[in-house]
Specification:
The structure holds three protein chains of three kinds. By secondary structure, chain B is mostly helical. Chain B is built from six helices and no strands. Helix content of chain B is about 75%, strand content about 0%. Chain B starts with 19 loop residues before the first helix and ends with a helix. Chain C has a single domain (about 20-555, about 600-610), classed as Cytochrome c oxidase-like, subunit I domain (Cytochrome C Oxidase, Chain A). Classes of the chains: A mainly alpha, B mainly alpha, C mainly alpha. Chains B and C meet through helix 1 and helix 5 of B and helix 7, helix 8, helix 9 and helix 19 of C.
Chain lengths: ~110, ~210, ~625
């Protein structure tokens, strides 16, 4: 099956994909650098003992953004064919938020 | 015909989703992670409800050392990146480099796990902060311990896959297995991001 | 291949066949046998409860034994009877309805069954080792933490094992529906039973993890000295209630949605009309699932969550009545103007509509938080949930079983006996539970071992018990019918009901590969379309070719057996720790074996297929 023209086409295709993957990998590394930066900021805020009113929301937002980076870049949720995974992850997040809200606000004792 | 999936060599663009079995695994595993989200949310919720219930035992701000936790965080974040590199090489059909990066991931994960065990040991023997000390301690060890168990399971999974396929290289049968292994690893990292924020940093802030 | 070989096989090879099967149709039969067995066990427990309550101050059962029977009745019926029977129906017909040759994960499907099976056995071994769980099926802490003996440990570990199985079954059905549909089977052409099973699986995926965590916490508290629910050490018992109901409320929708699906299949088939308001049915199903996640605290109105929380959950609960009402009206409109055939599945469906509506209305009554303080923990609640669970789920299961029996076994249950079964069960049901509403309003608390004379509770309790005997006799009639029909073994055609959906286009029981050629689906109710516009046969979407099938495997059984053994080690500790070692080694070893050994299945070749019939229902 693998006649000459086919293999030329194939190697061109491979080159194209390789380039594409390299492009993506750059994004991944940028993502990683930002995640490390966020982590540093979060730890820095706590170690510097900035007021809790300020620190708590900031570090929670930083965590949420980091998680979105993980999902969309490291786990490729930004690529095609991930509609159902996205639906189920967001449904899971929905149930998770309800659970945590209940256990933090209406766990009466 | 069925044996074709075991041939290594020329692989399509997304080898993890090239076969129906691969697509099923890919989809099913993502859904499983959706369920795991609720599992960890229940543990986080329990921890948050009990985080001040130290019943006279050590409290969060007394025992947590941020230095160690920071190093653990960097280790795990880096291991997440190295497993991305492994998948990058998988997509380029470069099996040797994939194995190499997975190997690095495993080493980093082992480092994380070792430090976590040291941390627990330190709490138990340094502060008399055991599993049964208080509701807070039970919640802490259960949440962080569940995560640690996930790390250990993920490491065993990677090692098993690497050894099993070392000789035969990448094919359409094992590519989905490597891929969902890496998804699992990223998810472990996702959970850790919340653990270091909610357990350790919030524990220090109070 | 295997179909012809089985007919003369000995008992040993049949057993081996079922132990290692990954065929969804055989797993359906396993679920049916397991679920039916536990349904009878749970029914026996129900009879013991009713006999105990037949007269005031009865001493038929001891108080402790009554608690155990009552706890196990609820636990068994929900986890070990209703869920597996629904899984039996899903396994039997869901892949056929979407034109799939198999489920997405045949291996995981088998694993799901064996985990359920061993979890159920584990739970019931408690009867013989010093007492069953006795803290109610809800196992509220701190009662469950301080309950003596090992009863509640059997509960927490047994349900943990069974729960893993349920989660896996759920994921399997989700991926099956998404990835395995035949050409032309778009989402909005899927039969309603497939839709409701799909949505129920979504609920399983997000509800069961909360139970998993709750059970782990309970196990840790009881066996490893943790303090989650122990107030002396800072613990908080409300956490259990939240986790249990975050799971528990979606759970009742996990049960009822597939039953709704069954009726949405049965009613169009026997009214000879397409389902009225198909898309609104789908929408209502999704809406029920969505709202179902936001109402769990209505089980906790009297806990003291405060007026704001109670109001939010009361309003959300009442909102669920809207999509449910949409469904009721759609069924009624499907019946309206239809050519109704009074077959037994149809009679079950017609009995279901008013019964479930009563249960729904008492649900709205219970949802108003202020009034709930009166109803809470009384027989009014008992009557309510039996109206929805028996009147909805159990009638749905039996309607589905009778309707799909020919598809599963190739035989038709005796219609006359089916009608006897329905009327005995239906009359018995209302006798048993209708009066319990009033017992509740008169102040009789649920779960009490006995009651005093002269409080006007005697007569209604007596009638209630008489009703329970009617239900028991009805169930026996059904069992007799099953035995009689299978002994006779009279085969029927692939489409005995003149039905509408894809599963009726192939022989009964279907060949192990289901569809010889992938079917081409041209619309909703594909078989009916072909009957009306074509030659009555589904057109193939592909030429005849090799069919890929999965290999059989004993590994699911071994994985589950390992957890079963490990459960005893964890519970009894001491010298029994060795059992935990053996059990976990078996489980992890089997998982490793599964991971390392290639399992790529095999092909049924075109030449073999050509020898068999044309693959249609004829």
């Amino acid at each position: 099956m693998a006649d000459h023209t086919n293999s030329v086409e194939n190697s061109e295709k491979h080159e194209f994909y390789k380039k594409k993957h390299r492009e993506q990998m750059k994004h991944q590394v940028v993502t990683f650098v930002m995640m490390i930066a966020f982590t540093l900021i979060a730890f820095g805020l706590v170690i510097a003992e900035v007021s809790a009113m300020f620190t708590i929301p900031i570090i929670l937002v930083l965590a949420a953004v980091q998680v979105l980076f993980q999902l969309y870049y490291f786990m490729h949720m930004n690529e095609e064919g991930h509609q159902w995974p996205a639906v189920m992850i967001y449904s899971g997040i929905f149930a998770a938020v309800l659970t945590i809200l209940a256990l933090t606000t209406i766990t009466w004792w | 015909m069925a044996e074709d999936v075991l041939k290594s060599g020329d692989l399509p663009e997304n080898p993890e989703r090239a076969t129906l079995e691969g697509r099923n695994k890919f989809m099913g595993f993502w859904f499983f992670l959706g369920g795991e989200t609720v599992l960890f949310a229940s543990l986080f919720g329990t921890f948050l409800a009990l985080r001040n219930s130290n019943a006279g035992g050590p409290a969060a701000e007394d025992i947590f050392g941020l230095g160690l936790v920071f190093i653990m965080t960097v280790l795990l974040l880096t291991s997440s990146l190295t497993s991305v590199y492994a998948m990058y090489h998988m997509k380029n059909n470069d099996f040797k480099k994939m194995q190499l990066w997975l190997g690095i991931t495993v080493v980093l994960g082992l480092g994380f796990l070792g430090m976590e065990i040291y941390e627990f040991y330190h709490y138990v023997h340094g502060y008399e902060f055991g599993f049964t000390t208080s509701a807070f301690s039970s919640a802490f060890y259960t949440l962080v311990g569940f995560h640690g168990a996930h790390v250990a399971f993920g490491l065993s999974w990677f090692v098993a896959l690497m050894i099993r396929n070392a000789k035969r290289g990448l094919n359409l049968y094992n590519a989905p297995k490597f891929y969902i292994g890496s998804l699992y690893w990223h998810f472990i990292d996702v959970v850790w991001v919340f653990i270091f924020t909610v357990v350790y940093l919030l524990g220090k802030v109070g | 291949m295997s179909t012809t070989a089985n007919q003369k096989a000995g008992i040993g090879s049949v057993l081996w066949d079922y132990l290692t099967t990954v065929d969804h149709k055989k797993i359906a039969i396993l679920y049916l046998i397991g679920g039916m067995f536990f349904f009878l066990v749970g029914g026996l427990q129900a009879m013991l409860i009713r006999i105990q309550l037949i007269v005031p101050e009865n001493e038929f059962l001891s108080a402790q034994f009554y608690n155990e029977v009552l706890t196990m009745h609820g636990t068994t019926m929900i986890f070990l009877a209703a869920m597996p029977l629904l899984f039996a129906l899903m396994n039997a017909v869901l892949p056929l309805q979407i034109g799939a040759r198999d489920v997405a994960f045949p291996f995981v499907n088998a694993l799901g069954f064996w985990l359920f099976f061993f979890g159920g056995i584990f739970l019931n071994i408690s009867w013989f080792t010093g007492g069953a769980p006795d803290a109610g099926w809800t196992a509220y802490a701190p009662l469950s933490v301080f309950s003596e003996g090992h009863g509640v440990d059997y509960y927490s570990i047994g349900l943990q094992i069974a729960g893993f199985g349920t989660l896996m079954a759920g994921i399997n059905f989700l991926v099956t529906v998404i990835n395995m549909r035949a050409p032309g089977m778009t989402y909005m052409r899927m039969p309603l039973f497939t839709w409701t099973s799909f949505i129920a699986s979504v609920l399983i995926l997000f509800a069961f993890p909360a139970l998993t965590v709750g059970l782990f916490l309970l196990t840790f508290d009881r066996l490893f000295g943790a303090n989650f629910f122990n107030p002396d050490m800072g613990g908080n018992a409300i956490i259990w209630e939240h986790l249990f109901w975050i799971f528990g409320h979606p759970e009742v929708y996990i049960l009822i949605l597939p039953a709704f699906g069954v009726f949405s299949e049965v009613i169009p088939a026997f009214a000879k009309k397409r389902l009225f308001g198909y898309s609104s049915m789908v929408f209502a199903t999704i809406l029920i699932a969505f709202l179902g996640f936001m109402v769990w605290a209505h089980h906790m109105f009297t806990v003291g969550l405060g007026p704001i929380a109670n109001s939010i959950f009361a309003v959300a609960t009442m909102a669920i009545a809207v999509p449910t009402g949409i469904k009721i009206f759609n069924w009624l409109f499907t019946l309206w103007g239809g050519q109704i055939r009074m077959t037994s599945p149809m009679v079950f469906a017609l009995g279901f509509i008013p019964t479930f509506t009563i249960g729904g209305m008492t649900g709205v009554m219970l949802a108003s938080a202020a009034a709930d303080f009166q109803y809470h923990d009384s027989y009014f609640v008992v009557a309510h949930f039996h109206y929805v669970i028996v009147g909805g789920v159990v009638l749905g299961i039996f309607a589905g079983l009778i309707y799909w029996w020919p598809k599963m076994f190739g035989t038709l249950l005796n219609e006359k006996l089916n009608h006897w079964f329905f009327w005995l069960f239906f009359i018995g049901f209302h006798l048993t539970f209708f009066l319990q509403h009033f017992l509740g309003l008169m102040g009789m608390p649920r779960r009490y071992w006995t009651y005093l004379e002269g409080q006007n509770l005697d007569l209604f309790n007596l009638i209630s018990t008489i009703g329970a005997f009617f239900m028991a006799v009805g169930t026996l009639v059904f069992l007799y019918n099953v035995v009689k029909t299978q002994m006779k073994g009279e085969k029927v055609s692939g489409d005995p009901w003149d039905a509408r959906t894809l599963e009726w286009s192939i022989p009964s029981p279907p060949p192990f590969y289901n569809f010889k050629q992938e079917p081409l689906v041209r619309g909703l109710d594909p078989l009916w379309i072909e009957k009306m516009q074509g030659n009555g046969k589904i057109q193939p979407a592909e030429p005849l070719g090799d069919i890929h099938m999965p290999n059989r495997s004993l590994t699911p059984f071994m994985i589950s057996l390992g957890l079963f053994i490990a459960g005893f080690g964890i519970m009894y500790q001491g010298g029994m720790w060795v059992l935990a070692g053996i059990g976990f080694a078996t489980t992890l070893g089997s998982m490793l074996y599964r991971s390392l050994k290639d399992d790529i299945g095999y092909h049924v070749h075109k030449e073999e297929l050509e020898e068999e019939g044309d693959g249609s229902n004829g």
